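Cross-check.
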Amino acid sequence: MTAPVEFGIATSNSYPSGTGSYSYRGSFDIIVQNLAFQKQVSIWAQVGAVWKDIPAVYSHSLPDNLELWEAPASNSESQFVAKYSVNGTSYWDNHYGMNYIFPVVFDEFSVIAGDNYRVVLGNANLTSPNLFITIGVQNLAYHKGVGIVFTTDHWGTFHSAYGNYSHTMNGGLEVWEIAAVVGSATEVEFAVFYQVNGNEYWDNNFSRNYQVTSAAPAIDTWG
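Predicted model, tokenized:
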């Protein structure tokens, strides 16, 4: 990460409440360089005809002196950018001047990803003998390869598994699914890759890789 602030992902989920109405849950993930203790992180969004600041709250630290911050979504946003104010300066991730477009939903689930998050893990579940994984990728070309590199013995050996296209969310992110055979393994470490246009993009959990076990709840980065 070279920029002081990057928009990571936004999730948007509308679902029946069971009382004849709909409930909503959505959020923005923002990654910032920890340039000082005092800082303000937010989403600057158009809601209806006006622009408003949606404050983010600190979630946790990441490797390389980075931090993850989260802001709530209301399903009323249209355009938005990520904003980071620190040491008297404001930094922006505005999608190269085009602004990001929020995935408004109705009785559905959608995710969009920032410019530097071409591939993102959705969820992972280890149910022997298979590791089931959902991945989101930005559709940069028709021909692409989406998969994982994984190990069951702490990288003494490792294997690759490729995914299959499932569907495209209304925000444009493609969903790919993998069922990797891992035998009787009760713990698997993995990283996600995306091969397209001669380039390779990775989601390796900020250089920490992902770890899933049969005894623990499934990983769900999309909430």
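The first strand starts at residue 5 and ends at 16. Residues 5-113 form a domain with the Immunoglobulin-like fold (CATH 2.60.40.2440). Passed to J.P. for a second look.
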